[in-house]
Amino acid sequence: MMTIVHVETGRHLYGGPLQVYYLLRGLKTRGVRNILVCPEGSAIAQAAAEVAEVRALPMRGDLDLGFMVRLRRLLRTEKPALLHLHSRRGSDVLGGIAGRLAQVRCVLTRRVDNPEPRMLVRLKYDLYDRVITISEGIQKVLLGEGVPLAKLQTARDAVDTERFRPGCRWPDWRQAFNLAPDSPVVGMAAQMIERKGHRYLLEAAPHVLTAIPSTRFLIFGRGPLESRLREEVTRRGLTEQIRFVGFREDLDRLLPCLDLLVHPATLEGLGVILLQAAACQLPIVAAAAGGIPEVVRDGVNGRLVAPGDARALAKAMLELLHDTGRRRRMGAAGRRIVEEEFSIDAMVEGNLRVYRGLLASTNFD
């Protein structure tokens, strides 16, 4: 039986950690023994208990040399076939060093497309035998920074199409959010950090509201920019039209009820929320950044605009809000795309191909 040690430093069960959970579940059904190293008290530790042997360890970030020692000790005890590092903060460099010290082959999943200093890239990526990118867009970034093509393979993220499916199953959802029965509702769900592009939505919203005053915007999520974004909405006098509704664990119930999802990110590895929206037959307006065009096909299941172009964002939103039939057709196309290209089985098999190919090689790369 193949034993793999996975390291995930995220504490919540969305985004990357949710993908790790899907992977662990799929690997277990294929006879793989999973050992998950994760933070103490994290949501993934609880969720993964049935699909992995969970080893909750103290994790204190990129400078926690003690974590490197603890991980090396675990690797020497368990003697896994592979070490798979799923997170950037607190595990990629320290985890790679621990793998080398323990002489365990090491795979890194790269989830973001932000550039890194070229000197750091050369030193850092020498630690890994293979790098799995969740989109072709991320692979292009790494190739441009000098990572060898032979070390790179793509295994796209996945969406649970049984959980995220069409049809609003919350009859009184408008009442819950104090929305009028005829208000078009646009959603944005992303961590409130600069690269997600919330400010472009705030710049675009007045143009949309001039044309369709009844439009309402629901902004889901939390993050360090939240207070600044709230202040900007207040300054613009749009507190009634733009609502901050916090982090929600029931997006599978909410997304099918919306009219449109907007995602103006300027950097994005792939965008799990885009997969979830498409699975719910929700049309999408997004920036053509990173791996986003691999999910959102312009004119097929949504519209793509240039990153940072708020006027183009507003124009694309209005184009779809004015055309119910087109939104319906785009939503159906999005569902077909995720069913055909972003299934959990495809993601699991993609990772397995990397594992098997690496283990079949006779020497460390």
TrEMBL record:
Signal peptide location: none
Domain Glycosyl transferase family per the UniProt entry, residue ranges: 172-336
Origin superkingdom: Bacteria
Record's keyword annotation contains Transferase: yes
InterPro entries named in the record: Glyco_trans_1, Glyco_trans_4-like_N, Glycosyltransferase_grp1
GO MF annotation, one: glycosyltransferase activity
Pfam families per record: Glyco_transf_4 (PF13439), Glycos_transf_1 (PF00534)
Keywords carried by this UniProt record: Transferase
Database matches in Gene3D superfamilies: Glycogen Phosphorylase B (3.40.50.2000)
Domain Glycosyltransferase subfamily 4-like N-terminal: 19-163
PANTHER family, alphabetized: SULFOQUINOVOSYL TRANSFERASE SQD2
Descriptive protein name: Glycosyl transferase
